[in-house]
Amino acid sequence: MTSDRLRILFASAEATPFSKVGGLADVAGSLPQALAARGHDVVLFTPCHKPSGRPGGNDDLSISFQGAIKKFSVVESSLANGARAWQIEDGEYFPRSAVYGEADDLDRYLFFCQAIVEIPKLLDWKPDIVHINDWHTGPVAFALRNYAWEDEFYRGAASIFTIHNLRYRGPDRFLDLIGPAIFYADVITTVSPTYAKEILTPELGEGLHDLLGLRRDDLKGVVNGIDYDEFNPATDSRIASVFDAGGLERRIENKRALQKDLGLDESDQPLAGMVARLSEQKGIDITLEAVASLLEAGSMQFVLLGAGDARYEEEARRLQERFPGKASVTIGFDATLAQRIYAGSDFFLMPSRFEPCGLGQMIAMRYGSIPIARRTGGLADTVPDAREGGLGFVFEEYSAGALRSALSAAVEHYGDREAWADLQRRAMGADFSWGASASEYERIYREAVGRKGA
After folding, report:
1. Which of 26, 275, 356, 379 could form a disulfide with 373 if both were Cys (CB 3.0 to 4.6 A apart)?
2. Is this structure's pTM higher than 0.70?
3. Does residue 119 lie within any of the structural domains?
4. Total domain count for the chain?
């Protein structure tokens, strides 16, 4: 490194706007641009999951992979703030219709890992930082060390490995690609300070807590941010009525539109929303039980959008049948409907068993929907309890009873409309943009490069 400007290669299996399966794509689509805004030379490196339909900036490149010469192209495009994207396109592994779940995922992502390491040299662009994410890029941490023994090009580059969800370790049940990355990376980060502590425990360490304990001094937690341009209630064309914290009276139009479109009664009762994968991790089991008791008491309405385990999908459908006009369940995912739920709900449920970071609670607060959250992972770091001057209603124990108590407290608070509006304005004014996260990553990068002696 010859100046304060860092060269950062940010590698991810998915990244908006090119591909998206989960929250990793949102992080990979936003953090590189936030880092570029701080003056760094940033390249987002990701597979071309859909045919690019345009000529690549660098065609006919090749590397040796599994004993054969593998040809590919790198399609370069511009991102905000001067960041760039390199998408690898080879015609065999990428593009594919599925980001994950192919029979040859191991080969696909080993090829991607080798490309991460070798393409910068082919293009004569030497990074100071190689930031890799989750199992799909985990082998790069060892490769960088191995290559550096023989090739000066790779010396001085620091590897940062981010764990977005420790539960997903590899393409199948036989391979753990996260463990070696934890061992070999220069710095390990995860997506919230509380989750960084939780994964050191047997309960949430997924069997890797002892290894993580060995790297405790190199393990950092940095809360994700959200894209304030995409998630802006004052300009969002997907919602029924735009609004801001100074015009909360316009927000009610979003609630009325949501009630009408989903067949709910037009009511002034609080409307609780949830957008989630229907799995125990996301707390759907305790949600359906707790919500049913409040619907039966006539205390609120409920809207659910999500898909997942078949048994929970069926239980959710039965809830809607049991409470017509009070509960709406949409199985699947609809990005526009999700935005309308953020903008039209009064409460937003995040009762997760564990939650590395979570983006839903931050988006909800941006749109004036108050989180009902369990104190775990990133939820603990972003949702202080409103009963103590915070931003949402928090519970500790993972149980339907604890969630029901938090919901009841929120319903009671909702009855004081002036206090509720103050809470909404406070939540909408909280800063969950990428600026603070990018600043913390910059500090981590500089520390890692300094330790390399660059």
Report:
1. 379
2. yes
3. yes
4. 2
Same domain, 160 and 291: no
Q: Is residue 442 located within the same domain as residue 416?
A: no
Confidence band for 1, pLDDT divided at 50, 70 and 90: very low
Q: Residue 52: is it exposed, middle or buried by C-beta count within 10 angstroms (0-12/13-18/19+)?
A: middle
Residue 219 and residue 234: Cα distance in Å, rounded? 38
Contacts with 262 (C-beta within 8 Å, 6 or more apart), sequence order: 303, 328, 330
Same domain membership, residue 109 and residue 45? yes
pLDDT of 5 > 60? The answer is yes
- Tell me, yes or no, whether 250 lies in a domain: yes
Q: Give the CA distances from residue 227 to residues 32, 41, 270, 283, 363, in Å, rounded to whole numbers and listed in that order.
A: 12, 20, 27, 25, 9
Residue 43 and residue 49 in contact, taking contact as beta carbons nearer than 8 Å: no
- Residue of 63, 117, 66 lying closest to 90 (CA atoms): 63
**The domain spanning residue 336 has which CATH number?**
3.40.50.2000
Say if residues 32 and 173 touch (Cβ distance below 8 Å): no
- Distance, in Å, from the CA atom of 180 to the CA atom of 140, rounded to the nearest integer, reads 10
* Residue type, position 292, single letter: A
Model confidence pLDDT, tens digit, residues 302-352: 999 999 999 999 999 999 999 999 999 999 989 899 999 999 999 999 999
Side-chain-side CA neighbours of residue 98 (13 Å): 7
Please check the confidence at residue 444 and state whether its pLDDT lies above 90. Answer: yes
Please tell me the distance from the alpha carbon of residue 96 to that of residue 102, in angstroms, as a whole number. Answer: 9
Structure tokens given for 303 = 């809207």
208 within some domain: yes
- Whether the CA torsion 342, 355, 192, 377 is positive or negative: it is positive
Question: For residue range 149-167, what is the model confidence (pLDDT) as tens digits?
Answer: 999 999 999 999 999 999 9
252: Cβ contacts below 8 Å, ≥ 6 apart = none
Is residue 321 exposed (0-12), middle (13-18) or buried (19+ Cβ within 10 Å)? exposed
